[in-house]
Amino acid sequence: MDITLGLDFGTHQSKLCMSYMPNNETIYEFVEFDMPDGKKSVLFPSVIQINKDNTIRIGSVDYDSCATRPIPPPKKPELPKRPDIVFPEEPDQTLPPEPKLEEPAPVIENGADWKDALKSIKTSMVENQKKDKGAFKKEHKIWAKKCQRIRERHQEWEKTCRVLNYKLKLWQKEVDEINAEYEEEYAYWELHNTEYRVLRYFKQAAFTATLQWPKDEIPADTLSIWYLTYLLLYMRRYVKERFNEVFEESVSVQMGVPSGLNDGISRAIHYRGQRFLVAARHLMELFETPEEMCTLPYQDLIEMTKCSEGNVVEEAEMYGFVIIPEAYAGLQSLTYSRRLSRGNMHLLVDIGGGTTDIAFFTIDESLMPSIHTVASFHKGLNFVLENYLKEHPGITMGEAQDLLRSHIERFHHAISAYTVELRKELNHLIDLVSLEFKKEVAGTELTTSRLIEAMLGRPIVYCGGGSVFQDMRISHQYFSDKRLINRDTLNIPNLMNRGLDPVFYTILATAYGLSIPTFEEIKTIDARQLWKMHADNVRRYPVHKDEPKDYGLSDD
Question: What's residue 390's pLDDT?
Answer without folding.
Answer: 86
